[in-house]
Give the backbone structure.
Amino acid sequence: MARARAFTTEALRDWSWSTPPDADLGEDVVLLVAELVGNAMLHAGGPLELVLDATPARLRIEVSDASSVLPTLRTPHRPGLPGGHGLYIVQHTADRWGSDLHSQGKSIWAEIDAGRLLA
C-alpha cells in the first residue's frame, strides 16, 4: 500500500498535479489509489498492476487483480460501522468508476476529470 501511495504522489508531482486548485484533490487521488489497492488486497489476493493514465481530459486510476469477481457496493451503506466503505468512498470521490473483466481477472478503475485537477 505504501508503495502505491508513494508512486501516485510522485506521479502527481511529476505531472504538476500535486497542488491542484483544490488542495485536497491531490489527496483524493491518493485516497482513490489506496481504496482500490486495498480492495484488491482484501478481496482478490493483492493487486497485479497499478496504472495511472493522464490525458488532457482526465486522470484514470486502474488496479488489476487476478479475481474475476466484480465489485459491488454494499447497500445500504452503513456509516459508523467498520468495513464496506471502500467503494462508497470511490463512488463519491471519483467522477466515474467501473470495472472490466479480462483474461487474467479484472480491473477496477476510477477517473477524475482534468478540469478538477488543473482549473
